[in-house]
Predict the 3D structure of the following.
Amino acid sequence: MADVKTFVPAPDRAPPSSAVGPIAWIRDNLFGSIGSSIATLVFFYLFFSYVPPFVEWALINANWTGSDRSVCEANAAGACWTFINVRLEQILFGLYFASNPDELWRPTLIFILFFALLLPLLFEKTPGKKWLTIALLGVFPVVFYFVVYGGYFGISQSNTTQWGGFLLTFALAFVGILLALPIGILLALGRRSELPVIRSICVIYIEFWRGTPLITILFMASVMLPLFFPAGVEFDKVVRAMIGITLFQSAYTAEAVRGGLAAIPKGQSEAAMALGLGYWRRTVFITLPQALKISIPSIVNTFIALFKDTSLVSIIGLLDLLNMAQTTARSMEWKGYDIEAFLFAGFVYWAFCYGMSRYSQNLERKLDTNRRN
Amino acid sequence: MTTDTQMAPAELGESIITIDGLNKWYGQFHVLKDIDLDVKRGERIVICGPSGSGKSTLIRCINRLETHQEGSIVVDGIELTDDTKHINDIRREVGMVFQHFNLFPHLTVLENCTLAPIWVRKTPKREAEELAMQYLERVKIPEQANKYPGQLSGGQQQRVAIARSLCMNPRVMLFDEPTSALDPEMIAEVLDVMVGLAEDGMTMLCVTHEMGFARKVANRVIFMDGGQIVEQNEPEEFFNNPQNDRTQLFLSQILQH
Ligand SMILES: Nc1ncnc2c1ncn2[C@@H]1O[C@H](COP(=O)(O)OP(=O)(O)OP(=O)(O)O)[C@@H](O)[C@H]1O
Ligand SMILES: [Mg+2]
C-alpha cells in the first residue's frame, strides 16, 4: 500500500470558438450538407414568396369593422373579416340562436361553462381535478341539454332543425366522443373475450361500422332509423346524427383500445389472477389503465378525425360550422367571400384539434414521468 | 454456493396439495405425464430439471394459470375445476412469484401490495397499508414504498413481488425461477428473503437452479425431465447419490461451475 497514486481531474477547457455561437449553429443545422443547403434555400424561397403577401392580405390590409360589404369593397386588397364579424353569431351558434337575440345567452353560457371547466384541467397544479372531470363529462352534458335544448324551467325549447354552426359541430363531436369511449372500451374487451359468442358479436360490430363510410352511416341513420321504430315515434335529426356518429366512432375507439390491450404483457394479468383478482377487477385495475395510457395517441387521433368528420352531417341537411360558414358566404349579402369563410372555419377546427393533440401529449408525458419503465 | 448447514427439518402437517395422475397437453404435445405429488403443510420443495421439462407448467397448474386435461389437483381441500369461484378461492391462498416479477408498473410499490388485500380480502385500506409496510420491512425495502416499480433494481422488484404475494397471507407460495432474471449480486438478497420465509414455516414450491438454496432449505428436491418426475429425494441423498442417469447428467452440468 506504499505508492498509491492520487487521481487529479484534468481542468475543463472552453470548446473551440468554431463549435459554438450562431454561425456554427447555422452552418451545422441549415447548411450541413448539400441536400440540407438546397432544402434550406427552397424553404426560404417559398416562405418569402408566399407568407408576406398572405400576412399583408389577412392581417395588415384586412377589414375588421363595419356592418356591410361596402367597407370590404372599398378596400379589396385585404381580407374581409367584417363578414365574419357581422355573421359571427350565426356561424358559431346557428340560425335558431342568431335569429333570437334574446336566446343568445344560452349558447354563450354553455361555451363559457365549457372552457371554465376545461382550462383548469390543463394545468398540472389544479386542485380537485377529479371533480372537474366529473363535472365536465357528467354534469356539463346535462346542463347543455337543459340550456341549449331547453323546454324546462321556463327556457323555451329550441328547434334542433335550426341548430347549426360551431354549436352543432361541438354537440355532435362531444356526444360522439363521450359515448364512443365507454362503448369502444367494452367492444375492445369483448373482442378479446374468451367467450366465442361475445367475441363474434364484437368483431362483427367493429368490422361492420369500420368498413362503412361515415357519410353512408349518417344517411342510413337519417333514412333507416325511423323504419326500426313504430310509426309516430319522431326522431330528431340531430339525435339521429348523434346515434350514427356514436356507432361509427365506437368501432374506431374500440380498435385503438384493443391495440393498447394487446401491448400489455401477459404476465400482468397472470400476476393479477395469481392474486385472486377476478376478470373485472383485473381489467379495471391492471390491464385497462395501462392499455388506455398506451393508446392515448391513437384514441385522440380518432377524436380529431371525428371532430372534422362531423361536417359530413351536411348530407342530412344539418349546417355545422363548415357548412354554415359556406352558406353565409353564399348569401346575397356576402357573396364572394368564401375564402374568409373557409379560413375562419378552418382556423376554429385547427384550434380545437391542435388543443386536443397538445393535451394528449401532455397527458402522455405526465403519465410517463412518474416511472422509468 | 457455500456449504450451508441445513435448516432444521420442518414439522410437516397434513397434505395441502395433492396431485394425482396429472396429464396435460398443449395441442398434440404431451407436456406433463402422470404426475403424482403430495405436498404437506410446511414442506419446502425445490423442483429442477432441464429447460422445457415442464417445471413452470406444473406449478402453474396448481393455481390454474394453466388448465389440465386429466387427473386431479386438490389444493387446501378444494379440487381445481372450471368453477371460477373455486379457482379464485384457491388463488387467494396460493401466492406466486414469477421469473420476470410482473409488478404492476402503473401502481406504486405500496399500491401493488395493497390492491389484492383490499379488493379480494376486503381488508380496509388503512389496515392493508399497515400490513403491506410490515411485509415491505420484512423484505427490507420499506423506504421504497412510494416509488414505482420501474424505479427499482431487479432484486428490489422481486422482493416487492414476494411482499405483494405475502400480503394475501397465502398458505402456499409458488416460485418460478425467481432469481434467474437477476444479476448475480442481486440473487443473494432475494434468496435471503426466501430462506427467511422457509424458516417461518411457509409451505413452498420452488422452481430454481440455485442448488445452494436447495441444499439449505429444501425437504425434498424433485427432478423433472420430459414432463415426468424422474426422481425425488431429500437434498443430501439427491445431490450425493442420484439414482437416475438423467439426474446425474443434469447435476454434473449445473454443478460444473
Ligand atoms: N402455451 C404453450 N403452448 C405450447 N407449448 C408450450 C406452451 N407453454 C409451454 N410450452 C411448451 O411446454 C414445454 C414445457 O414448458 P415449461 O415452460 O413448463 O418448461 P420449463 O421446465 O419451465 O422450462 P424453463 O426452464 O425453460 O422455464 C416446453 O417445451 C414449452 O415449449
Ligand atoms: Mg419455466
Chain A touches chain B through 23 residues (CB under 8 Å).
